[in-house]
Amino acid sequence: MSVGTRRGMSLETKYVELCKGINGLDKIILREVRGCSAEVYLYGGHVTSWKNEHGEELLFVSSKAIFKPPKTIRGGIPICFPQFSNLGSLEPHGFARTRFWTIDNDPPPFPINSSNKAFIDLILKHSEEDVKIWPHRYEFRLRITLGPGGDLMLTSRIRNTNTDGKSFTFTFAYHTYFHVTDISEVRVEGLETLDYLDNLKNRERFTEQGDAIVFESEVDKVYLSTPTKIAILDHERKRTFELRKDGLPDAVVWNPWDKKAKTIPDLGDDEYKHMLCVEAACVEKPITLKPGEEWRGRQELSAVPSSYCSGQLDPQRAFLSDKFGLA
């Protein structure tokens, strides 16, 4: 695999390793000095692993996941573009997650944080085959960063490069699968009292009742006008995931539960107990770009002891989030 350069510098450092993954697919390993790591496959621009300094896996990937194009990879963080779910004529969740991305050797400027050394820039452009099913030209740039404290950040920049003067419209999601100990002992905070579309009831609109969201059966909801921070509390592990987002007003919450899990070929019958999707998304109001216009969407994930989430965040982490406008 070609290592390449980033503006004259080698991409491969002690923080970034390019290697072969499952079935010989190219992947990137990001590492931080405290022992945190993340893995990204060029196939799909797909994050498939995020581990803390203790080597504990924080993302769920199915034991039956298929790492063989054109199949999609079950778990991690699939990129849903240019269509979320079946909200259009394309394959469910669009085609970005089944395309081979390339390393972007000359990315545009991103917000500078000199402490972030473990990152990779990827790019996906239209192909002539894609234009046949979605008649638009675009550049999709994706930066994946592993912060010094173990936070995982994904920043997307999508530009309309049509030369025919036409705008295009798309929906989007970071389809994040969190690894949880026991779904029945998990709750989600930050979505209380919000309106949502229930995909199990023909996308009928409801208002969330009660306190935090808990799980006792299949859930597939799109929460609307959501806050920039959502918390996922894993009581058994005494761990809280914090999801911060920018440019993505919606949040999808999904768990297939037992009956649906048995119908999903690349998911083990009981694996639903150990996964929860909470997805930073733009679904209800699609994004429209004129030629030359660019959209940006970002999510930042962190995992902290649950004691941090009793109304108080770690001060340094809160400072960094304020710096990036995500607090």
Automatic annotation (TrEMBL):
Record key words, sorted: Isomerase
Gene3D superfamilies according to UniProt: 2.70.98.10
Pfam family, one: Aldose_epim
Organism: Populus trichocarpa
Entry annotation: catalytic residues: H175, E279
One Gene Ontology cellular component annotation held by this UniProt entry: cytoplasm
Protein name, per record: glucose-6-phosphate 1-epimerase
GO molecular function, one term: carbohydrate binding
